[in-house]
From TrEMBL:
Keywords, comma-separated and alphabetical: DNA-binding, Transcription, Transcription regulation
Organism encoding this protein: Yokenella regensburgei
Organismal lineage: Bacteria, Pseudomonadati, Pseudomonadota, Gammaproteobacteria, Enterobacterales
Protein name, per record: GntR family transcriptional regulator
CDD domains xref list: WHTH_GntR
Domain HTH gntR-type: 5-73
Record has Transcription as a keyword: yes
UniProt key word rRNA processing: no
């Protein structure tokens, strides 16, 4: 004899039916937990567990202090390609936006950026931080490190050009991806706040090492993607 579904499973089925009906559109905000509980006849604690279960399945996602949203289509991301986020998003019929948070020289940087010092000794690195969004929802945060001894004045040239364009036009360098590393992580509060998340939210960390024609590492990118927002693939 089969067991009756748990209360949480029943709540999840009601939420699943709500999502399939399209009452809240893709990317749209769900009613508050109080309103949703009243609409579907679900107790608050049971509703919260059902929402967390759907979040784990990438059906919905949460923005800190803003509530729950219906997951957008995943962005198909091939990180070994040189195509910009803007171009790749437009090719997929998405609406990209992006922005810089800070561009400065730093004397303290993560160990992951240490390979940049092999090309030229330096006590500081350029650090450029920013974000990318699809349809107005921020989906990733990035930190980019560059050795100022290799590319003096790099950060002053980023206003209207991509990283690749600056390397080509200002430093006569064709940079290529030399190393890619992937890791599931939990975002720290300092990182997650830039994309509207909460401390400890799951993410995919992508580390890219870009090299010049001589094999010298000239740029290291560290990207944190919301786990429900992206599908990764590599072209062989």
């Amino acid at each position: 004899m089969e067991k009756n579904p748990s209360t949480v499973e029943n709540a999840k089925e009601k939420l699943d039916h709500w999502l399939k009906q399209g009452i809240t559109p893709v990317g749209g905000k769900l009613p508050s937990e109080r309103e949703l509980g009243e609409l579907l006849g679900i107790k608050r604690m049971t509703l919260r567990q059902a929402l967390l279960n759907l979040e784990a399945e990438s059906r919905i996602f949460r923005k800190d202090r803003k509530g729950w949203f219906v997951t957008q289509p995943r962005f198909n991301y091939s990180p070994e390609l040189s195509a910009s986020f803007q171009r790749a998003a437009l090719e997929q019929g998405r609406e990209p936006s992006w922005g810089f948070i800070d561009k400065s020289c730093v004397s303290q940087f993560p160990q992951a950026a240490a390979p940049l010092l092999s090309a030229a000794a330096s006590e500081e690195l350029y650090c450029i931080t920013g974000w990318g969004a699809l349809e107005g929802h921020k989906v990733f945060y990035h930190e980019t490190y560059i050795n100022p001894q290799v590319a003096p004045g790099f950060i002053e040239q980023l206003e209207s050009q991509s990283f690749t364009s600056v390397w080509e036009k200002s430093y006569n360098k064709d940079v290529i991806i030399k190393k890619l590393a992937f890791k599931p992580v939990r975002m720290s509060g300092d990182v997650s706040k830039f994309i509207g998340g909460s401390s400890g939210m799951p993410a995919i960390l992508i580390e890219k090492h870009r090299a010049d024609s001589h094999g010298n590492i000239v740029q290291i990118d560290i990207e944190y993607w919301r786990f429900e927002a992206v599908d990764l693939f590599i072209n062989l």
